[in-house]
Amino acid sequence: MPRDNMASLIQRVARQARITFRSPAGPAFGENLHRLQQLLDEVRAEDLHLAPRGPSAAAAAGGGLPWAGVVPPVSYMHICETESFSMGVFLLRSGACIPLHDHPGMNGMLKVLYGTLRIACMDTLPPAAAAPPPAAAAGPCHRALFRSRQHYTPASPPCLLSPHTDNLHQIDAVDGPAAFLDILAPPYDPQHGRDCHYYRLLEGPPAGAEPPGLPREVWLMETPQAADFWCGGEPYPGPRVCL
Q1: Pairwise CA distance, residues 237 & 224, whole Å
Q2: What is the pTM of this model?
Q3: Strand runs (DSSP E) across the chain, as ranges?
Q4: I need a surface site. Which of 9, 197, 234, 240 has the fewest CB within 10 A?
Q5: Number of CB atoms found within 10 A of residue 165's CB
Q6: Are 18 and 82 in contact (CB under 8 A)?
Q7: What angle do CA 186, 107, 132 make, to 5 degrees?
Q8: Is residue 33 helix, strand or coil?
Q9: What are the CA-CA distances from residue 146 to residues 81, 88, 107, 143, 157 (Å)?
Q10: In whole angstroms, what is the distance from residue 67 CA to residue 58 CA?
Q11: pLDDT one-digit tens code per residue, 129-140
Q12: Cβ(238)–Cβ(50) below 8 Å
């Protein structure tokens, strides 16, 4: 059952996010970020009126209507957005993947609500004159540090990203559907240089496969959004948030 104080909790999460990301370069940012992480860690799926769903439930949710009955692999429930941050819930069908992508100049926090996610995290690296990209590259290439690949569940602490650390990631739903609460600060905004870019590994196994020892340097090639990935929309059923 949802906890009686959940409405105030999700409201406090949003208020703390607004405080935290209003001044990301301020002296209190680290302390505010830690407090936000603590609050986010308390959130559970039932508190947002969510429950794990199978393929039939996902189809009934209606997220695929704009695609003539084809249910999108990923859906998004918008909760709130300001100039400094956005918050919402991503729902992944079983086996779905959010491809490797970046968050230019952004901080982020991800808390699993149900299911299991496999998250591969990378950092961009400055160009190296002595290390040209592979000859097979057919697009813009970037050096990156493949830092980690871990499984996250509702029992895990939030997964964090910053403008310089773990800023690129790939998210896979493992052994069933999954959902996570997502905070991005500031939100994506192509007009202000914060567009989402997609990548694929040019060497070794893909980001979702078991990699060699980590961390290690890799080459990434920028690609268009994959044809089999798109994100639908669904109404957010949880407690209202007012800012």
Answers
A1: 32
A2: 0.86
A3: 74-81, 86-92, 97-101, 107-124, 141-152, 159-161, 168-185, 198-201, 216-223, 231-233
A4: 240
A5: 13
A6: yes
A7: 110
A8: helix
A9: 31, 27, 18, 10, 21
A10: 14
A11: 556 666 666 678
A12: yes
* Token pair belonging to 100: 């490797």
| Residue reference for tokens 């998210």 | 171
DSSP class of 42: T
What secondary structure does DSSP assign to 111-149, as a single string?
Answer: EEEEEEEEEEEEEE----TTSPPPTT--S-EEEEEEEEE
Q: In this structure, what token pair is assigned to residue 116?
A: 């299991």
Whether residue 10 contacts residue 241, with contact meaning beta carbons closer than 8 Å, is answered with yes
Quickly list DSSP for 194-215. Answer: B---EEEESSSS-TTS--SSSS
Residue 134: asked if its preceding bond is cis (omega within 30°), the reply is no
In the block, tokens 């997502």 appear at 182
